[in-house]
Amino acid sequence: MNEKTSKLALPSEPRTFGFFVDGEHIEAGNRVVLERASPAHDVCVTRIPCCTREDLDKAVEAARTAFDNRRWSGLSGGERASVLLKAAAGIRERIDEIAYFETLENGKPISQARGEVEGGIGMFEYAAGVARALHGDSFNNLGDRMFGLVTREPIGVVGLITPWNFPFYILCERVPFILAAGCTIVAKPSEETSASGLILAEILKEAGLPAGVYNVVPGTGNEIGQAITEHAGIDMVSFTGSTAVGRSVVHAAAGNFKKLGLELGGKNPQIVFADADLKDAADGVAFGVAFNGGQCCVSGSVLVVERSVADEFEALLADKLSKIVVGDPLDPATQVGAITTEAQNTKILNYIDAGKKEGAKLVCGGSALDFGAGRFVAPTLFSEVTKKMSIAREEIFGPVLGVLPFDGMEEAVRIANDTEYGLAASIWTKNIDKATQVSRRVQAGRVWVNCTITGGPELPIGGFKQSGWGRETSIYGIEEYTQIKSVHIELGKRNHWIG
User: How confident is the model at residue 7 (pLDDT cuts 50, 70, 90)?
Assistant: First the structure.
């Protein structure tokens, strides 16, 4: 049997990484080294250096030099596209390696990790096309003596801070678009899941990306993340994480008025109408809350279901949730793996306890699962939930779902929008008029109809309200990393102002 159908083995020893600055891998030396234990096995799998602020300064200097001497920004879109396509091919050659370390560090199922790496390849391929298509505008309506141009120029050095829940895929939703725009990058992956970002550095170098264009400085958020947001040499920061940390990023970035791209928290409704295909909807809702162990910013963690079918749908959903295969993420049959961090595991279990104490009815799940090692939580469903309960209002970031019944479309929309967040929503109905009306009124950056947590590079992602600023992926995603310049060209001899 091959590794795609048989359970993979743990590594015999942890893999040691350095960091990556100005086209070179640098060993940890006397720096602090973080030993990452697999959240599913409690075995050390990687050793990652904790960079210093001096390391960050060198990375920013390398990125600034690479940007200012135009070794990347001065290339044509076609030349940048060629590198991105070679990088996509390089990722494809190393799918199994990247997915393996994603699973070891993150705890997600190996089959899911492979799918995400394949999705990342699509991001690079799409961004290569967009690199050639990026353009400005012209104004030929200013009279015979004036011609106007609007150009898009790369914004400069981008600080990229990515989270632990989708380490490689979120990187791929940003890196190729930043590069396609002509910018340079200083990346800080989560200290919990740094391996894939460092492997990507190897791939980009082999693809012909010039030195200094992509730099990786692992480290803690409090040290390196904070320093990136404050650094005067960085022109823009792209941050993905919680709304609370996003708020601190906004304050820190004020020093040099950095542009910010923020994808933050969500409390995302799944709205199920009585006329939906309830079996399809139950499967989709279960996937929406349990995918990646619920550790997903667009996880559908609030079920808003029409009252007339609420009991029937609850039974269908509980049956689906109880059949989800939770277990060793190195087993291809596993659907839900481990909870990535100890802090997140504690947070999820505390929310489950809060739901019980606040009066919600536990329908299924509701506890940790013991597999002898690691951290696992059973997919959990609560009924008799009210909007005042913490499990209905706050982002849990785990496989926990609360049910809120509604009567009529107006109430469904009101419940869905009664949140500080606005990241995503799913609508389940076979009535196209209803689906269209609700999708137009729900306050969310992404809306899925009769599906959930799906998509690719063609459409933008991002949030409303306190779920973030800006958009990633698609043509809108590359435009985020540009700035607009107006050019006026006077034709002919000047009419003199001074006689």
Answer: confident
pTM: 0.97
**297 catalytic, yes or no?**
yes
Q: How far apart are CA 52 and CA 224, in angstroms?
A: 7
Per-residue buried b or exposed e for 116-137, using 16+ beta carbons within 10 Å of the residue's own CB: bbebbbebbbbbbebbeebeee
DSSP state of 461: B
Query: Do 313 and 272 contact (CB within 8 A), yes or no?
Result: yes
Token pair for residue 228?
């990136």
Sheet with 137-139: list strands edge to edge: 137-139, 146-154, 482-490
Choice among 116, 173, 192, 263 that is catalytic: 263
| pLDDT cut 70: percent of the chain above it | 99
End-to-end CA distance of the chain: 89
- Say which of 297, 306, 314, 479 is annotated catalytic: 297
Q: Is 364 a catalytic residue?
A: no
Burial class (CB in 10 A: 0-12, 13-18, 19+), 80: buried
- The CA-based dihedral angle spanning residues 20, 22, 26, 28, taken in that order and rounded to the nearest 10 degrees: -60
Which residue(s) pair with 158 in the sheet? 185, 236
The pLDDT assigned to 5 comes to 64
Angle at 300 between CA 292 and CA 421, to 5 degrees: 115
